[in-house]
Design brief:
321 residues; Rossmann fold; 6-stranded parallel sheet; alpha/beta; two-stranded parallel ribbon; 2 domains
Length: 321
């Protein structure tokens, strides 16, 4: 979600140089967009504990940084910003609206749309002296497309191409796999459709099983992150959970049908410029019960997800394609 705002700020201030400290896996998301926008990809395992953060800070100081925008506001980034403040470097951090979110979770406040995370990023940069209008359109419209799919990878522009990303970090955000399989079975029976399955190496076994049973193509361990983005950009639609794949597909501006369980789009984590009508969710008194989905289901039955009919998702797919 940081890509659109980071791009807009760097483009608005071409005389300044902006470093983006990020997970090494996401370094390609910022690389090549602008000459003054430079990602620093790291593996957090290389900087474990307090002493690891001090070593990271020492490495970052060598870059002669003048200002710091903490858009994460977690223990690691808080420690980093204290170190920078002690060095008389100007630091501003994100307001995550934790109080507003807690009020909704506790039912002290009705469900209503809170500020989107990209707007919260905008606020941080504005306080730092870098207000900028949103200028991001789509990932591949802002950088030369030097990405292509492998020659052996099947893709047919004459067909309707559908992506499905069935996984999420927490089970309270993941549509039941048996119901997802029903949806895949129904879609694969259509003769004018290609289905691409997105996941990671831990989910490979299940994806391979679906690949063998149905007319689907698993992209796991075949494509790089940039190639996955390129494939997404050519899809007609992606079905996703409240997960990273929703945000990746949003960067290439394709329709995303997102399935929501314990979490809720109102918290500001909806896909960038996605249509609200493409969110799939049901109303329950206990919902939402979590901001990030990292809590166990109080009911114990995940009704917020199991009560969503695969027919509902199917009908939304048909409407889009």
């Amino acid at each position: 979600m940081l890509v659109p705002e980071a791009y807009s700020v760097a483009r608005s201030y071409p005389g300044d140089h902006f470093f983006v400290l990020t997970n090494k896996r996401f370094e390609p998301l910022f690389k090549g967009l602008l000459s003054n926008l430079e990602p620093i990809g790291i593996d957090l395992n290389d900087y474990k504990g307090v002493f690891g953060i001090f070593r990271l800070a020492k490495d970052l100081v060598k870059l002669n940084i003048d200002k710091v925008a903490d858009v994460h506001d977690v223990i690691r980034s808080k420690l980093l910003r204290v170190i920078f403040i002690l060095r008389n470097i100007k630091v501003k951090h994100i307001d995550k609206g934790r109080g507003e979110k807690k009020a909704i979770l506790s039912r002290k406040s009705p469900i209503h749309p809170l500020k989107h995370t990209t707007e919260r990023y905008h606020d941080v940069f504005s306080k730092l002296g870098y207000p900028a209008e949103m200028q991001f359109e789509s990932f591949f419209s802002h950088r030369p497309s030097q990405v292509s799919l492998p020659d052996s990878f099947p893709f047919n522009t004459a067909l309707k191409n559908i992506g499905i990303a069935p996984f999420a970090k927490h089970n309270t955000k993941m549509y039941p796999l048996d119901q997802m399989e029903q949806l895949i079975s129904r879609l694969s029976a259509l003769d004018n459709i290609n289905i691409y399955l997105f996941g990671n190496e831990q989910e490979m076994e299940l994806l391979s099983g679906w690949h063998e049973k149905y007319n689907t193509i698993s992209v796991t361990e075949i494509l790089t992150l940039e190639q996955e983005l390129y494939l997404m950009s050519r899809l007609n639609v992606l079905i996703s959970m409240d997960s990273a794949n929703m945000h990746l597909a949003s960067l290439v501006r394709i329709p995303v049908i997102s399935v929501w369980g314990a979490t809720h789009p109102c918290f500001g984590f909806y896909g960038f410029k996605q249509s609200p009508g493409n969110a799939v969710q049901i109303d329950l008194e206990c919902r939402p019960c979590s901001v990030y989905g990292n809590k166990t289901c109080a009911r114990g039955d995940l009704a917020c997800l199991k009560s969503i009919s695969s027919n509902l998702i199917y009908s939304k797919i048909m409407r889009i394609i």
